[in-house]
UniProtKB/TrEMBL annotation:
GO terms for cellular component: cytosol. It catalyses: 1D-myo-inositol 2-amino-2-deoxy-alpha-D-glucopyranoside + L-cysteine + ATP = 1D-myo-inositol 2-(L-cysteinylamino)-2-deoxy-alpha-D-glucopyranoside + AMP + diphosphate + H(+). GO terms for biological process: cysteinyl-tRNA aminoacylation; mycothiol biosynthetic process. L-cysteinyl-5'-AMP binds at C43, G44, I45, T46, T58, N81, V82, T83, W223, G245, S246, D247, V278. This is L-cysteine:1D-myo-inositol 2-amino-2-deoxy-alpha-D-glucopyranoside ligase. The gene is mshC. It comes from uncultured Nocardioides sp. Zn(2+) binds at C43, C227, H252.
Amino acid sequence: MRAWSAPDVPTLPATGPSVRIHDTATGKLVETSPQGTARLYVCGITPYDATHIGHAATYVGFDLLNRAWRVAGHEVDYVQNVTDVDDPLLERATKVGVDWVALAERETELFRQDMQALRVLPPAHYVGAVESIPLVVAMIERLQRLGAIYQVETDLYYSATADPRFGAISRMEREEMLRLFGERGGDPERAGKRDPLDCVVWRGERKGEPAWDSPFGPGRPGWHIECAAIAHEHLGNSFDVQAGGSDLVFPHHEMSAGHGQVATGADFSQLYAHAGMVAYDGEKMSKSRGNLVFVSALRNSDIDPMAIRLALLRHHYRDDWEWTDAELFDALDTLEGWRSALALGAGAPAAPVVEAVTAAMADDLDAPTAVAVVQAWVDATVGTTGLADTSDREAADVVRRLLDASLGLAL
């Protein structure tokens, strides 16, 4: 599957510091330590509806990690999946009377357009669930040989406790796991399972649903093993950061890690990073609630995508927050002021801005602090206009490059 086009990213006059990020599994701020190329997996969309601001916040958030690593001198191998066959997609296609393949292709293309408009750096490997089925089959066969798979009717299940580290990522009590498992696509009450928390890795063929041949009979892959197999194929047995929204901590990331760890014996990921949830009208933004603000709708209303991105950057990626139109309009006004300052050519000295912004981004992707630093430079630049003896005549160009390289804002 193809990703979207990559923007040109400018270089900076200095190399940024090592990147620290909050690790969900330990609850601590941990310095990332890529051995050469940094390896990042961010869980992708199930393409049954358009990209909303909650999605955008997650992908912009971890785009900042991609950029901070690059500023620190690393190449980045970034992988993202597309769950282009799953229950929500099939249910939506049936409800609206369209072919599920056509629906998935349409919404995936819209997602590409939204990400490109927001200047999110594309993954090196953008992989659909359907095209990854051979990888899933191979991982299931490996887990079978290790005794971690059993059958219930035509479905195959993974024994969650096959991994002695199960629960180490989410650090949840079993009661909380059971509640979330049922709410987030699991089937804790399925008869015949050995443990209510065991998850399906191969769903046997159902009437009217797509299915693919396999050694286990016709069917389709489970959600969690899809990501485990894709990550293993493209990033190796263990990689640097597994990322996604905080609603993926359990069961998705816990289960995916378990699959990978039992299959390989290695830690699935060194760190687990999660973005906060975005609310609208007082509730978490979600398709089930229908309280969505679509990126494409904003773009089609002639809203500058850089204003959308700036509105997102004003919130720390780990925070839960609520989207408002007022924040978007304020971002539009802010960009106008920033562009005016950059147009002056000269400005307040740029070196302290580069140092402060790159330091903020290396400190758990602290975009709000970085934005405040840039605003202070804008205020100082506007305040020193005409004072050529105290201004830096190359400052505007350096700050412009900084905005793009570190924050993804092309002004």
